[in-house]
Specification:
The chain has 79 residues and is mostly beta strands. The chain is built from no helices and five strands. The chain has a domain of 50 residues. It is 0% helix and 22% strand. Strand 1 and strand 2 form a beta hairpin. It starts with 15 loop residues before the first strand and ends in a 14-residue tail after the last strand.
Length: 79
């Protein structure tokens, strides 16, 4: 088994997770291209910007590098 630990004070290159001041987490594949993976607490559910929303025109100045972990799981069907 191979264990890799990367420690850096520099901003990671893409892809990377970035977050807004309201907690919206976006997985960026380039400077302005990304997909919402967590909508945070300050955003309306009725907003067009829901989890899975993707665009190539995010404003990178509205984001900072996300420091933490994210657990992704498939949604379960309720029936």
């Amino acid at each position: 088994m191979l264990n890799v630990i990367i420690t850096s004070t520099k901003s990671p290159k893409y892809p990377k997770l970035m977050v807004t001041s309201k907690g919206k987490v976006v997985l960026f594949s380039s400077k302005t291209d990304g997909t919402i993976v967590f909508n945070g607490s300050g955003h309306s559910i009725s907003s067009a910007h829901i989890v899975g929303y993707h665009t190539d025109c995010w404003a990178p100045e509205d984001f900072t590098d996300f420091r933490g972990s994210v657990k992704l799981t498939n949604a379960t069907e309720e029936g």
